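Assess the record.
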Amino acid sequence: MRLLVYLQFVKLTGFHRFCSSLNRITTPETSIKMNLSDVVSQLNRLAPPSLAEKWDNVGLLVEPSAPHHVEKMLLTNDLTENVLKEALDLKVNLILSYHPPIFAPLKRITSANWKERIVVRCLENRIAVYSPHTSFDASSDGVNSWLTEAFDVADCKPISPSISTSTPSGFSHKVEALIPSSVANNPEVNKVLEKLELIMQRPESQNEMEVNFRSTELCPCILTVLCTEAKLPEIAAVLTSCSQLTKHTQIYKQDKFPIPGHGMGRVCNLKNPISINDAVRLVKHHLNLNFLRVASGVNKI
């Protein structure tokens, strides 16, 4: 039986899993102070911001001036003014808000509306704000994976896999030029190679391009240039300036690969078929809910 699980909400029990994964969390018995930067590094490791949806706003959203130490954190699903009042009463140093309190760009920080007031009061009281949101949804050990634990799952994979932020080579484009033996010693070709060498010698080019040569039975010399998108126009201009190489030059965009286990939603195969009523019962038990709204097709229940 295939079970489609794509729930884009979080219950505090699931978000607690995010916090419990931290190596060090203060407790009433042990008071531990951590630098904010260290806490953020831990949070980013658990829910890398690169996994978030493009439209989302995740990570450290409010940062008091350094140095800032975190001894007490408050966990919330949404940071409202009432939640902020609780945070002030508890004297916390960091608020972990699942949903980002800052979403649309702020053109000013005033007391005109509640979201701006939250930012003002957090900064005034030296409270940092961090939001994982869809980065934690997509994480292999995040909210969506936690939701599937309600069932006896045989295997599970993301509905929409997260894509790596860079290609395996680290460069966005590959420029390949075939140099036939008939033009290998052509002055025009040699001039192009000299220009490429000069570009390579620039300090800034070390992280922007990489040049390799290889040969095959059909072609004695194949020039391959891996480069960033910013460097591509200059490389292409040099290679196509040579009439002998223009018709033998190809530009390829390097593919980014899916990140195993990470992504939005989950498609699961259950070990044994279950009824929709059993599925509802398991979800209610897992989320500790008394009621669950279910939408079904006609004559499906």
